[in-house]
């Protein structure tokens, strides 16, 4: 199945697709200052739901993600997710 990509080449997965969370995690890792606005701009994930989506990454995948002021930082990818594998979801090879 092919998904629409935004202007940055990021696939726009449906809301209930786990790959959306992986795109979020990749954006936090990739961006120099991963704020909700910057993540929204890059990924198309609405900045209003990013906190709740980060909570899902913590709860469902065991990631350790901190928020310092407005900036997110990944401390640990947990035992379930592999950073390199997750990054491929954000920029899949066609």
Main β-sheet, in a few words?
A: 2 strands, antiparallel
CATH superfamily: Winged helix-like DNA-binding domain superfamily/Winged helix DNA-binding domain
Helix-strand pattern = HHHEEH
- CATH topology call: Arc Repressor Mutant, subunit A
Distance, first to last CA: 11 Å
Q: Strand tally, please? A: 2
Percentage beta strand: 5-15%
Structural class category:
alpha+beta
The total count of helices amounts to 4
Number of domain modules: 1
What is Rg? 12 Å
Q: Tell me, what's the shape?
A: globular
Could you say what the CATH architecture is? Orthogonal Bundle
Average pLDDT level? 95
Q: What order do the strands of the largest sheet run in, or round the barrel if closed?
A: 1-2
Structure description:
- The protein has a single domain (18-89), classed as Winged helix-like DNA-binding domain superfamily/Winged helix DNA-binding domain (Arc Repressor Mutant, subunit A, Orthogonal Bundle).
- The protein is built from four helices and two strands, in the order αααββα.
- It has helices at residues 18-30, 36-43, 50-61, 83-90, and strands spanning 64-68, 71-76.
- The longest helix is centred in the first third of the chain and has 13 residues, at 18-30.
- The chain is globular, with a radius of gyration of 12 Å.
